[in-house]
Write a structure and sequence with these properties.
This protein is of the alpha/beta class. It has 13 helices and 11 strands. The strands form 3 sheets. Strands 1-2-9-6-5-3-4 form a 7-stranded mixed β-sheet, sandwiched between helices. Strands 7-8 form a two-stranded antiparallel sheet. Strands 10-11 form a two-stranded antiparallel ribbon. α6 packs across α8 and α9 packs across α12. The protein is globular, with a radius of gyration of 20 Å. The two termini are 36 Å apart. The structure holds nicotinamide-adenine-dinucleotide (NAD). The site of nicotinamide-adenine-dinucleotide (NAD) has 28 residues, from α2, α4, α5, β8 and α6.
């Protein structure tokens, strides 16, 4: 098992990463002296494949244990989803001395995290991310929340878990598109750190699909390490944390234009490709590097629908992104690996031509 220490102003905890590491999890629960009144909230699809392992593990651990199953979708990241969890916990007689364990992808983590942050002004929380995306991204950094009036992640809080247990064994049962979705964020990290990791990804990224445990473990450890160090330097997203949005301005526009029928990570891959073209068009990224940098995201196949959409609509949506100021679209753009600029503006025609080049270059 590998441990990454997350050290924040008020919280200090570890990410545990490895294959079949539930036993280390037991040690961690003992070491941290966590409450033994457990509410275990599990994504239904995870339960379908992994419930016997989960039940076996927790049955010998808690004083009081109740399981709550979630049918994950963006719709459940809602006031109603939250209400159901609060009601369940009250009905079962839980108080402040509760440990809530969220086992699932980002939807589960965001919703359950916010429930734990707010139930009786906050109870203990542990994340067990079961998607690649949740492991490398959503379970790190403490953002929790729900959607509101069709707007994503409108209501929420920063709430840190006591520990995060990333057992990569869960990823074996992920559908292929969910793996691609996680790969989108991994590719983004490929540009944020150093050329060793970039080269490693270029060589090995497709082996995630065939579940090579050592490759996956290295990729998760490095990605989680990058996110952790960025988050530690800027807990509440005042500045430095913005580099994590590489590819995301385009991605949010694409997701909206496709009515969220594409996966977030697929959109991030297309977004990273567009960002590389834009950076080159603006003269920030040296054209000599462009092809080399593109070669990583271009390794991943995207659905056919990326061939055909309305570029102007995407740009209009991007203008209304909640991260913008004064109606100007702000981009995060790479100059080189590890050297990322934030808050870069561009003319509409240049943005459009970058998107067009992305459409022409991706593999389907
Ligand atoms: N808090 C943050 O910082 C942050 C960051 C990025 C994304 N997010 C949020 O994360 C959410 C997306 O997360 P996600 O991509 O993990 O989606 P998800 O939670 O919906 O999971 C994707 C699908 O995979 C299934 N699944 C999960 N684990 C499985 C397993 N081991 N085997 C088989 N199937 C499994 C789920 O049931 C679901 O159908 C979005 O709501 C997004 O807003 C939050």
């Amino acid at each position: 098992v590998q441990k990454i220490n997350v050290s924040l102003t008020q919280d200090n905890y570890s990410l545990l990463i490895g294959q079949n590491i539930f036993n280390q999890f037991r040690e961690e629960i003992d070491n941290l002296n966590l409450y033994k009144n457990l509410v275990i909230i599990i994504d239904e699809n995870v339960a379908k494949f992994h419930m016997s392992k989960i039940r076996q593990f927790f049955s010998s651990l808690g004083k009081k244990i109740n399981y709550y199953f979630l049918k994950p979708s963006e719709a459940i990241k809602s006031y109603r989803g939250l209400n159901n969890i609060y009601s369940f916990m009250l009905e079962k007689g839980y108080g402040r001395d509760t440990l809530v364990i969220a086992i699932g992808g980002g939807v589960t983590g965001d919703l359950v995290g916010f429930a734990a942050a707010t139930f009786m002004r906050g109870v203990q929380l542990v994340h067990v991310p079961t998607t690649l995306l949740a492991a490398v991204d959503s379970s790190i950094g403490g953002k929790t929340g729900i959607n509101f009036q069709k707007k994503k992640n409108m209501i929420g809080s920063f709430y840190q878990p006591k520990t995060v247990v990333m057992d990569i064994d869960f990823f074996k049962t992920l559908p292929k598109r969910e793996i691609t979705s996680g790969i989108g964020e991994v590719i983004k990290y490929g540009f944020l750190a150093d050329s060793d990791f970039f080269d490693f990804l270029k060589k090995n990224i497709n082996q995630i699909y065939s579940f090579e445990p050592n490759i996956i473990e290295k990729i998760v450890v490095t990605s989680a390490g990058i996110k952790t160090s960025v988050v530690s330097s800027d807990e509440k997203e005042f500045g430095a944390r913005k580099i994590l949005n590489l590819g995301h301005t385009f991605a949010h526009g694409l997701e909206s234009e496709f009515n969220f029928k594409i996966k977030h990570g697929e959109a991030v891959i297309a977004g990273c490709i567009s960002a590389l073209f834009l950076s080159a068009e603006l003269g920030l990224l040296n054209r000599d590097y462009l092809e080399e940098y593109l070669s990583l995201p271009l390794k991943i196949k995207l659905p056919n629908r990326f061939k055909n959409f309305n570029i102007n609509n995407v740009i209009e949506i991007m203008k209304h992104d909640k991260k913008n100021r004064d109606g100007k679209i702000k981009f995060v753009l790479p100059v080189s690996i590890g050297n990322i600029l934030i808050d870069i503006e561009a003319e509409k025609n240049v943005i459009a031509s970058s998107i067009k080049k992305m459409i022409e270059s991706i593999s389907y």
